[in-house]
Structure formats: structure tokens, C-alpha cells
């Protein structure tokens, strides 16, 4: 039996198809998928709104600090540095997010529609998610350290003994430690359990494509 | 594109080329529930892809491309067998089986043989049996034509050789 005969055998199934589709259920599945997609997009939009609002608030706080310290008539270089540095950091964070998002979108657009391109696109998406996870982890850890530093600095500046608010201080420091550590453990666990194995399998498939 | 327009185009594609989806599902999923799950996944991806179709290739080529990409990604997904919740309660009935009387048993044999191949070779074998050219196969899978040629020779020898062996015995 040669290939042509195998192909003609293969074509016999067109005449007597074994399967059919339940169109009502399929229609329902498509509607559910559309609803899920819309929900995800809404959530993404809200996240952007909330983050943007957070940036605006952060900038307003730093600018406020400049104005308030200006009233005291004891302006030092540090008063300006903190205000300008904070506003610049907030702007920089927003800008970096935007630039990163655009760069990733451009990278993904470069891939075509073949199986190889799809694999490369998925691997690029995993890499991007890993970068975002790392950045989030660093930000949260720095936030925790910064939070503790600001707390302690506040007591020092106000010349207030730490023992005055013992329980409150300990709870706040605990929060500054527990939150970043929990986020860190969760991120690392998720990476190791979900993302890395999938990425490795995609890379293995790419290798399979390359091997003739 | 309006949703109704997308639904109309998808309906036409499905009516004309649903066999493509069944073939792909058949060589990438082996349990009944998995086949239902994969079929639903492929159908959703094809439906979503309607917007992106630019008529640079034929509809069957496009549908094969989407279906194969989805199937290969699906087989690589972790824990697909342990999905706690199915999106549809009656998902079992999404793909219905009609009477198999009159179906050539050699077709089942072919499916069985294709299922033994590696993931990428399964895609190449499906496209080959459906009469796609080397160039089309290369563009769908993302290989060079010479690489496709090497794979096809290997698949051909395996299929023909196995068939001859079994016929003789």
C-alpha cells in the first residue's frame, strides 16, 4: 500500500463522518467565553485606573510635602530633594510600566501565525510574566523595608521613645515583614509550579521542531 | 467586527470544515472527556480568530493552523485532566457520535498510527493526508520545506511499512 492509497482511505471519512457538533451547546460555550474575556478586560482596565490614581495620589503627597515644608520657612536641600525625587520616582514607575507594556506588545506582534511563531510568542509571554513577577517582588520587598525605615525614622524625628506605642509598632513592623514575605513565597511558588514547567515544555517542543 | 457577523462567519466555517476540528481532536486527545474539552477549546480559538483572518491563506489552512496550535498547547497544559469545573455542565454532549457503520476500519488504523508519532509529526501527518503541499505544511507548522520533506519521508515510510507488515502477517 502506498501513500496515495492511504490518502484515499483517509478521504473515505469525509463521506461518512463519525462525529457531529451540538450547536446549541457550542453557542453557549462561545457566549461564556466572550463573557469571561469581557470580565478579564474590565478587571485589567480597573487595575490600570487604580494604579494611575495611586500614582497621582503619590505625586500629590510629595508636592504637598514641599508646600507644607515651605510654610515653615526652614527649607533645606532635603525638603526639595524628597519632594522632587518622590514625584520623579512615581512618574518613572508609570513610564517604565508603559514602556515595558509597549515593548512587549511590539515583540509579540513580530511573531507570525505558524506553530513556531506561536511557541515563541508564548515563551515571550512567559518571560514577560516572569519579569513582572520579579519586579513586583522587588517592589514589595523594598516597600516593606522602606515602610519599617519610615516608621522608625518617624519616632526618631519626633523624639518619641519606641516603647510609647509598643504593640502598634510591633504590629505595623510585622505587617511590613509578613506582607512582602507572603507575596514573595507565593510568587516563587507560582513560578516554580505553573510557569516554569510550561515554559520548559514549550522550549522542548521548539527543540522538537528544530530536530528533523 | 460585530458579534453577529463573527457568529455568521464562524457558522459557515464550522459547517464547511468541521471535519478538520474532529481530525485534530482525534489525534491529540484520546479520552472521551478530553476530546470534548479539546474540541471546545479549539472551537473557541477558531471563533476568536475570525477577526484576525485576512484571507492570505484558505479557510481550511487557517482552521488547521489554529486547531493544531491550540491542540499542541492543550497537550502541554498541566493538569488538564484534573480540571475541577467544566465551563459547561453538559459538556459531554458537545461532540456527538453518529453511527459508525460503513466507516472504513483502515481510517481508525491510520488514526492509531498517527497518534503514535511525536506532537509535531502528528500535525505534519494530518496535513499530508489532507493533501496540503510541502509549502503549505511548512507555513502552518513553521518549518523549512526541506525539514518538512525529511519528516514526510519518515512518516511515509513508517505508515506504509507498518501497513505492509500488518497486511503480510
Task: Walk me through what this model shows.
The complex is a heterodimer of chains A (212) and B (169). Chain A is elongated. The mean pLDDT of chain A is 76. Chain A has five helices and one strand. Chain A has helices spanning 3-15, 23-71, 77-110, 115-157, 166-210, and one strand at residues 19-21. Chain B is 69% helix and 2% strand. In chain B, helix 1 packs antiparallel against helix 2, helix 5 crosses helix 7 and helix 6 crosses helix 7 (145-168). Chain B is globular, with a radius of gyration of 17 Å. Classes of the chains: A mainly alpha (212), B mainly alpha (169). Strand 1 (19-21) of chain A pairs antiparallel with strand 1 (95-97) of chain B.
Could you estimate the helical fraction of the residues of chain A in percent?
over 70%
Strand content of chain A: under 5%
> How would you name the oligomeric state of the polypeptide chains in this document?
heterodimer
Strand content of chain B: under 5%
Summed over residues and divided by their number, the pLDDT of chain B gives a mean of 82
- The H/E string of chain B reads HHHEHHHH
Instruction: Determine Rg of chain B (CA atoms, Å).
Output: 17 Å
Span from first to last CA of chain B? Answer: 57 Å
Q: Mind summarizing the main beta sheet of chain A?
A: none
Structural class by secondary-structure content of chain B: mainly alpha
Overall shape of chain B: globular
Listing every helix as H and every strand as E from the N terminus to the C terminus, the arrangement of chain A reads HEHHHH
Number of helical segments with 4 or more residues of chain A? 5
Number of helices of chain B: 7
Roughly what percent helix of chain B? 55-70%
* Uncertain segments of chain A: none
Query: Largest interface: which pair?
Result: A-B, 43 and 62 residues
Query: Outline of chain A, from the CA principal axes?
Result: elongated
Q: Give the averaged pLDDT of chain A, no decimals.
A: 76
Q: What structural class results from the helix and strand content of chain A?
A: mainly alpha
